[in-house]
Fold this protein.
Amino acid sequence: MKSIKVLKNRSDIGAGTRGSDMGIDALEIAAINLGSDFFNRYPFEDLPTHNETVYNKDQNSTAKRINFVAKQCERVKNATVKVLQEGFLPLILSGDHSSALGSLAGIQCAFPEQTIGAVWIDAHADLHSPFSTPSGNVHGMPLAAALAIDNIEYKRNDVSDLARSDWERLKNMGTVCPILKSQHLIYFGVRDIEEEEKEIMSLNQIKNYPVHEIRYRSLTACVNEALVQLKDVDLIYISFDVDALDCDLISRGTGTPVPKGFDPVEVIDLIKGIQASGKVVALEVCEINPLLDEKGNRMAETAFEIIQTLLDSY
């Protein structure tokens, strides 16, 4: 079994709300308060960020700070490649979800001859592009970049040449484009979806297992079905956005909380089910925002308990 190396990516420039850059510190505080030595047990790397760019007055409204998000994704990519080549399993702790594109690109660059699958545990589909985004927040775009989907047919924004260039940079961050094929992407828990994203999911036949379906059919049945779909991939990347959790049950300590989500045991069992395939190459956890947590540090505490349960055997 591979040992873990922790990548601490405190970037939150892709989000619409400040504070997820503090999510890693919140996780570490949760560990301390629970008497756990988890963060002393594994080697780690702190990645530099461009968080100071939130103060820049010149904003691209269709893809806010996309040039700096692209730079951050390259940092995450390079760090992920290095960790994988060293033989570790990377636990990537990120602020916002935009830099997940860097994680995927890093896996693809480290293993260019192998096929990647992605299990995306999230309340949101993250399938917008600068052309279709209603918010301009790049944390809603990483999968469109990984799939190289421009969404021109759903265009609502005029995109500058500079933003187009940075968007192309994101799409082409791996050694091949697209980094990920739509049949190798599976959602769990997505429930807050724009109409355009629903159409993109339908057009590209991207499978989503909503919470209610998992509870009706059983988590085991859905996970086993997902693994059948991913039978031809060599490696699986798991991305866990904490807004997949039920904000009314846990807390609202995340930038875009959505009710009727998972409970912690469901997330643990889901990830364990995917881990049982023996193909998991990286786990990412993101979007913890302690500034928005109305229950103290509850979101980080819950996320840490999930991480600890999943990885204590490594």
In short: The mean pLDDT is 96.
